[in-house]
Each structure stands twice: as C-alpha cells, then as structure tokens.
C-alpha cells in the first residue's frame, strides 16, 4: 500500500523563519521574523502540519552566546507564534563547530534523524525548507523533499547551483506554505489528478 508521508515540515531557522546575519543571531533582540514567516507556520498548523526546526547554532560552540540566550530567542519566537495561533513542535539544534566533527551539524542528517525519532515519523517524503545547500543535503540524505527559499542566503545558494535533484525554489516561507497547502488540496482531489495523468499519457502516445 502506498504510504502518504506524515503531515510534517522541517525548517531551517536563520534565513527561513528569521532574518539572518553574518554576525550570528546572538540575542532575542537580534531575532527578527521574516515578514509572513510566522503566519506561514500558523497556516501550515491550521492545515494539520506539524512543524519542527533543525538549526546549526555554532555560535554556541564558538562562545558567541550562551544556551540561555538561545532559549530566550526561542521563547520570543514561541510567543510571537502563539499570538498568531501557530506553534513549532520542537527545535533541534547543533551547538558544535565544524572542528567538533559531530553527527548533527548540517549537512549531516543527525538533527533530522533526531526529529524523526522524537515524533515517530518516516522522513522520506517530508518537505525540508532551507536557505543553504547544507540544509537541503541534510534532509535529502534521509529522503526528505528539498525546498529552497530565496530569503537569507537563498539567492546566493541558488546562484552557486548544484542543488539536489528536484529542489523547488520559493520566494520565502510564505510562498512555500501556499504551495504546500495548494498541493495538499490538489492531492486530495485524487480522481481529477489521475485523469490529468491519463490524458497526458494519451497525448504523448
Ligand atoms: Mg539558514
Ligand atoms: Zn552537532
């Protein structure tokens, strides 16, 4: 029997949910949502999707900020989301630097594996949204479907190319959520979709 992927979405944080900075996001004041991103999370929740974040936070390993600052940033995010009726189920983060050689710093898939285990889901087919190649690679390693946003480092990532096969590009998280929720609606209209495929085949032959 074909298995539908869980209604689950995995997001990178910096450059996807909030504005990114080359100087790192170190304080709650520096944590500023990208316009429409929190609304997008709330809309996905409304449609039955559980949303988690998987984020490299090497600023901790570099000693740029403490865990308490990271917690305060996330508290700010949770509160802002709650005002919109949205929620993020969990935030998985890697506090290490590249030199630590850990299993969780993206592009390693450790954070995605942690999320899948915690929520008992199969990562195959689950959308992963990021603004850097390594976000997508971490998910693709486990069969997630890659989505690049143009916010944050997204434009630069797109310009560099070499994106995983099948990567879809969206202007921002809001555009991704619209695509996801429309696609979801189309998938539910199963009969219509089959007809289109059948016709396409006939025309091609
Ligand atoms: Mg990012
Ligand atoms: Zn790590």
Description:
Helices cover 42% and strands 14% of the residues. With 205 residues, the protein is an alpha/beta fold. It has a six-stranded parallel sheet. Residues 188-205 have low confidence and may be disordered. The structure holds magnesium ion and zinc ion. Zinc ion is lined by residues 94, 96, 102, 104-105. Belongs to the GmhB family. Monomer. Its EC number is 3.1.3.82. Keywords: Carbohydrate metabolism, Cytoplasm, Hydrolase, Magnesium, Metal-binding, Zinc.
Brief descriptors of the model:
single chain, 205 residues, alpha/beta, Rossmann fold, 8 helices, 6 strands, globular, disordered C terminus, binds magnesium ion, binds zinc ion, D-glycero-beta-D-manno-heptose 1,7-bisphosphate 7-phosphatase activity
SS elements, strand count: 6
| Assembly category | single chain
Report the mean per-residue pLDDT as an integer: 90
CATH architecture grouping: 3-Layer(aba) Sandwich
Read across the widest sheet, the strand sequence of neighbours is 3-2-1-4-5-6
CATH topology tier name = Rossmann fold
Question: What is the fourth-level CATH superfamily?
Answer: HAD superfamily/HAD-like
Order of helices and strands: EHEHHEHEHEHEHH
> Shape from CA axes?
globular
Count of the domains: 1
Q: What small ligands are held by the chains?
A: magnesium ion, zinc ion
Look at the structure and give the CATH class: Alpha Beta
Sketch the major β-sheet.
Answer: 6 strands, parallel
Number of helices: 8
* Helix residue percentage: 40-55%
Distance from N terminus to C terminus (CA atoms, Å) equals: 29 Å
Low-confidence stretches: 188-205
**What amount of the residues lies in strands?**
5-15%
User: What is the CA-atom radius of gyration, in angstroms?
Assistant: 18 Å
Class per helix and strand makeup:
alpha/beta
Protein name: D-glycero-beta-D-manno-heptose-1,7-bisphosphate 7-phosphatase
Family: Belongs to the GmhB family.
Organism: Cupriavidus gilardii J11
Pfam families: Hydrolase_like
